[in-house]
Amino acid sequence: MTLTLDGVSKVVAGRTHIHPITLTLQKGTMNVLLGPTLAGKTSLMRLMAGLDAPATGRVIWNGDDVTGMRVQDRKVAMVYQQFINYPSMTVFENIASPVKLMGESRQEIDRRVRETAEMMKLTGLLDRKPLELSGGQQQRCALARALVKNAGLVLLDEPLANLDYKLREELRAEIPKIFERSGAIFVYATTEPEEALLLGGNTATLWEGRMTQFGPTPLVYRKPQDATTARVFSDPPMNFLDVHKAGDMFTLGTGATLAVPGPLSALSDGDYTLGFRPNHLGLDDHSESAMAFTARLKVTEITGSETFVHLDIDGARWVGLIHGVRSLRPGQDVRVYLDPSHVYVFGPDGTLVAPAAYAEAA
Amino acid sequence: MAKITLDNLAHSYLPHPRSPDDYALKEMNHDWVDGEAYALLGASGCGKSTLLNIISGLLQPSQGRILFDDVDVTHQPTAARNIAQVFQFPVVYDTMTVRDNLAFPLRNRGADPAYIAERVDQIAKMIGMEAELSHKARGLTADAKQKISLGRGMVREDVNALLFDEPLTVIDPHMKWELRTQLKSLHHEFGHTMIYVTHDQTEALSFADKVVVMHDGGVVQIGTPQELFERPAHTFVGFFIGSPGMNLFDARIEGRTAVIEGTEIDLGAGYSVGSGRVQIGVRPEFVHFAEAGQGVPARVRRVEDVGRHKIVRLDVAGREVNAIVAEEAPVPDGVGAIRFDSDAINVYVDDWRLAANERGRT
After folding, report:
1. What pTM, to 2 d.p., does this model score?
2. Residues 301-320, chain B: which have Cβ within 8 Å of A?
3. Which of A45, A64, A180, B104 is the most buried (most CB within 10 A)?
4. Which of B181, B229, B304 has the CB atom closest to A305's CB atom?
5. CA distances from residue A267 to A176, A351, A354 in whole angstroms, order as listed
6. ipTM over 0.95
């Protein structure tokens, strides 16, 4: 079982919402669509489902061209951000409704509803109405309705966005287990990098209607092909520094110079953008080859176990995520350190020139 | 700006409450310091919105008083309290331009036009909407509209307090960083008393000077992010703050030794445990691996790569226990046991934290 998008695009009133995307999703996989609002996640899902017809390209399901086929005739289930249940029906009737529409026998309906309810931990709640459930249980009910159809393709559009933080944490851990058992192709849209990492599977990063990369989630995270992917797949966003390399010196935008550290010395002379994630910036100099910068501290945010430092470095903004609790006064200058093995090097057009050494080792 | 006093305050939505369970907000007495930023944190239904509505005057408490700078405002309508509010979903005038939306609260109070122009420019810069000032609000995205709501909430400098009710729900993660940083800088600059309601621990911890953790209609702890992380006063705080939350183990305690699953653990200090359910709590950050026989027996179930660190899911006597390890630290083969940093262990009796006897004494 596979779903292939072959050069699929979407154009609305002359404006391109989705630039041509070619992509194959395999049976029994979790596929995350990661990107900010308006990146095209929902548009892409609607094309996959058959809710919208593509402007160009073909949608191929198991080798069959289903491009023009109506959504009703495809084995597709979709879950939205808003929990959609029938308020007047019990949880049992809600879960049963898609199977009823398929014309299954009463025994079969009963069997499937109970099996799915068990999987979604709703067994004790089958006689309740949706409004008598907590938000998390309501969304479980909506998820159960999607799963009970045994659809080959299950599309989840930010399904946890409206839930409390702790409930999200719990369901996030459960969803990969559920999908392992169902064998369907799962597509999961989210704006949050951490959610993508927790879900695992594959991730497609989206930016302004373009798919920038697709591959195993940890690989896309550690080996982004370009600066856009790196930015999308980093929260807080990746920090960047434009440099010009000449010999063994980097010249920064301000004219300041910096010795090129050993691991980056193999780069040929020219213009580059260095990128690194906030958690790799440190306040302590613990590596001999570390690059050191002086930055103005704008704001600190203590999260309990970690401290975010928001920095102004010659007009550019960096964020550092420092382990432990640091009491620093905003407005002061601080020395920050960066191990060059955590630095991604991008060319002037944003393509990756050299991956971070630590990611290569991982 | 004002000090806010909650005096003997409680609220029930029932006309004749009988037991504590009938109260959505249980009796509380607090002074909230002028100029501090407070976050009200808790799951849905914990009473945080009830409390906010009482402070804003949308709701009359069934018991007690609320004072702004020692003046009783319990029965004052919202308009008389001189507060600014920002809600979960954008409240903007679609037919007005962004500029007019931002200027509205100032014009309403007859402020000087030159001052209004200056202040609106300042706010527009802060929310990053200088380019859209002349656009009509209609047609803007939800997060752009919410930025206008935030900007309008902050446009007046003379308010008693700024109240935010989950204001970043509809904002993209990347933008959340920006706006939170802006709010924080603004707080440093103007020293507004701010009250920020959220269910998101990251948001609460990184925004607030003091976090008010609510559970079941009551305040379980008011503390700095560091206090909530290191010394949770209640098991709920341990669970709710931190991702994943604190691990809890049923234990037997004698003096400075706890016994978990037959293993003796040094607590680093003595405790005088009375009767009740005794547990020790250890955050995943302070759980370390050991060989079998060198600690509490444990087995690795699953490792989740979250990017900047890994969450290791362990099985301890059939229950899930979490450990957090650094991104580049390996999870050793053959983990047979876990041990804890002794100064990071907290002792709970019937869910409330028990203070240690004086260090050195047992």
Report:
1. 0.86
2. 304-308
3. A45
4. B229
5. 41, 14, 8
6. no
